[in-house]
Amino acid sequence: MERICTTSLIQGPLEEIVPWIEWHLKLGVDHMFLFLDHPNDDLTSKYKHESRITFTPVDHDQIRQMQVPHPTAHVRRQFVTANKAWKSAIDQNFDWIIHFDQDEFIACSNGLCNELSKIDKATSYVRFGLLELQPEFEPPKKRFDEPLLFRRRQSRIQRVIMQLRGCGGTMIKHRFLRGHQASKCAIRVQSEQIKHINIHSPKLNYGTLEFDRFHPNIDLIHFNCLSYKHWRHKMTHRHQSKNQSWAISKDKAWQMNAFVEYLHQRPKDLPQLFQKIYGINRRQKKILLALGALEQHTLFLEQASLIIPQK
For 222-246, what is each residue's pLDDT tens digit? Predict the structure, then answer.
């Protein structure tokens, strides 16, 4: 049996974190290394008898003094904590480690351990498929047990087909997704090819040649944006904190620059900008569903079952 662990930097209310933890424990994760960005006594108390979870407070002062090759404070903390968990995973003889965030859910219909056991031993890491929630103006009533609409990451050729079918307006700078453009990975803990763990994939040792391998039966579900209110709060926070992560790609830079312009010059029109970024009309929706760029699924929390297509 392959032993699987995960690592995450977490913060936020208990009611959001608990379902996320329960989902992944039911999915078959053997251990979760959870790093607390801020103290959370309610969370640690709830799981004090759970041997499958290790809570570790983040030492902010120590990380600030470290030479970490990342531009933003949050990403630096993610980098340090993920690699700390990786070293613990090596010591505890885990087979796989997965780094992901608390707004992301791993989904697998045939058992996570079963799927990863099929990967040949020479493979250092395998990348997941990527689904991103398609938000509406009002937030969904439930994140679980009700059908939701998701965008699926598309290849360059697939995006060209989307444009030819009249769906170019659903993309920004030729990108269909609004959050991640790359999914996360399962990384083979004991691989000698791994130098360290980055946010989305491992850094391989110099001279190692290994191409991305996508797993067809494991997806990463990203709840990037739930609603207009959530989007506005998220973008405002990034703007005020001078978070530079938005500048890593042309589409994210466009989104932030447009948001700042609307925020300062025409704040009443921000809902229109939200619609411009995320809006999909009925005709486009029908085409994108047929092309597989949009998918409608339900997440069943009690079984932690892979999103089940709604006919």
Answer: 999 999 999 999 899 888 876 555 5
